[in-house]
Write a structure and sequence with these properties.
single chain, 439 residues, alpha/beta, Urease, subunit C, domain 1, TIM Barrel, 2 domains, 5-stranded parallel sheet, 14 helices, 22% strand, globular, disordered C terminus, binds zinc ion
Length: 439
């Protein structure tokens, strides 16, 4: 037996979305990096006690849409800082987007990322590979070698493949290889120049619009291509009522389509832009109240199975410019859980089992990963959540180098106080968790 520390996480409220379990008080035992059955251990086994009374014990979360910014843009974020932010946010697995410099369109770049992750990452990281070379939408990237190098999915996130013929080939190729395509849906002929939702507010503010239909056209095209090719496609960061309607219909017809929504799109609307604050600028943009409600309804009824942050850090100086010139994107790893709790749980729309399924079982199914769980034998990737901890968002306290949060100053409830990966504590908040040796 290894000499690693073994833990007894005692008297917590255990929530396991895979098993649809919500029970308390439960003692959970961790040894050799896994969740274990204590009856297989001697009576006097030296468990280190972690008192979880009053806390929720959950499997570690998966965020399948994260920009780590390495290689190439370490001024915005690094693998180290992003994964520290993830750990503090309760996220034990992140999926890294390939729009780095250089982009992950070559197996060497995937290998470079994996090496850096081994050395510096605090949480588990799965890289993705590009759909097209340099994400230009013209020539397919070498899918097979990207996958062999460790890419878990293919995406040109941030740049939508405009040419339907290229997208069709990409789907045919991906379906043969059995990997999903993560699809950023944007018809750039329609969205070109747009910096916010096209509608009443863009007219009032005099800013160029990024219309809903630019998203919906590609959602519709790619559902048709999915039907034609049988490829597994995952629609990223959906924002419009029309996209949800198309998705719901595709699912009714049994197509292998899944989708994600982001916390900022379910928490905010386009009216947040009235002060021209670039912290509210992201792609796709904040939409209308009707759209926001449609996204929440789709989470509640199961049409959308994933919540992802689209964590997109930028350096402060890049965002401190006039609205139209600022880059798109907001950070989200450290506010993900609390914003979801606010919009879905505290607003009485979803229970905790269903909510956390969107951050565990949902993404694992899309990606073909082992579903996170607290059953015996599962890797001990878990978090302790203090549901009642109130806190105010202060980006200066973030581990992320990116301070571009749309939730600055917001009062939230719910904080992750301990994060464990493969049986090792990678992050803990000092003030809450007492720990003592039992002898
Ligand atoms: Zn995107």
């Amino acid at each position: 037996m290894k000499t690693e520390e073994a833990f007894c996480i005692s008297a917590g409220r255990l929530i396991d979305p895979l098993l649809r379990r919500d029970e308390e008080p439960v003692n959970l035992y961790v040894a050799e990096g896994k969740i274990v059955d204590p009856t297989n251990y001697p009576k006097d086994f030296p468990w280190t006690k972690i008192d979880a009374q009053g806390l929720i014990v959950l499997p570690g979360l998966i965020d399948m849409h994260v920009h780590l910014r390495e290689p190439g843009e370490s001024r915005k974020e690094t693998i180290r800082t992003a994964t520290m932010a993830a750990a503090a946010g309760g996220i034990t697995t992140v999926v890294a987007m390939p729009n780095t410099i250089p982009p992950a369109d070559h197996p060497d770049t995937i290998a470079w990322i994996r090496k850096k992750v081994d050395k510096e990452a605090l949480v588990k990281v799965y890289p993705t590979g590009c759909i097209t070379e340099e994400r230009l939408g013209e020539k397919l990237a070498p899918f097979q070698s990207l996958i062999q190098a460790g890419a878990i999915a293919l995406t040109d996130d941030g740049s939508c493949v405009q040419n339907a013929r290229i997208m069709r080939r990409a789907m045919e190729y991906a379906s043969v290889l059995g990997v999903p395509i993560l699809d950023h849906c944007e018809d750039t002929a329609l969205s070109d120049g747009g910096v916010m939702n096209e509608g009443l507010w863009s007219t009032l503010l005099g800013l160029p619009g990024w219309p809903s239909i630019a998203e919906e056209l590609i959602v519709s095209r790619d559902i048709l291509l999915c039907e034609k090719t049988g490829a597994k496609i995952h629609l990223q960061h959906l924002t419009t009522e029309g996209s949800i309607r198309l998705l719901r219909d595709a699912k009714k017809r049994g197509l292998p389509v899944s989708a994600e929504v982001c916390p900022h799109h379910i928490a905010l609307t386009e009216s947040a832009l009235k002060e021209y604050d670039p912290r509210f600028k992201m792609n796709p943009p904040l939409r209308t109240q009707k759209d926001r409600e449609a996204l929440i309804e789709a989470l509640v009824d199961g049409t959308v199975e994933v919540i992802a942050s689209d964590h997109a850090p930028h350096a402060l100086f890049e965002k401190e410019v006039e609205f139209e010139k600022a880059p798109f994107g907001v950070v989200g790893l450290e506010t993900l859980v609390a914003v979801c709790l606010k919009e879905l749980y505290y607003s009485k729309k979803m229970d905790l089992v269903d909510l956390f399924a969107k951050l565990t079982v949902g993404p694992s199914r899309v990606l073909g990963l082992e579903p996170p769980s607290l059953r015996y034998g599962s890797p001990a990737d878990l978090i302790l959540l203090d549901l009642n901890a109130s806190w105010k968002v202060d980006s200066n306290a973030f581990f992320s180098k990116g301070k571009n949060t749309p939730f600055e100053g917001m009062n939230l409830k719910g904080k992750v106080v301990l994060t464990m990966i493969d049986g090792k504590i990678v992050w803990r908040e000092k003030r809450v968790v007492g720990e003592q040796k039992t002898v």
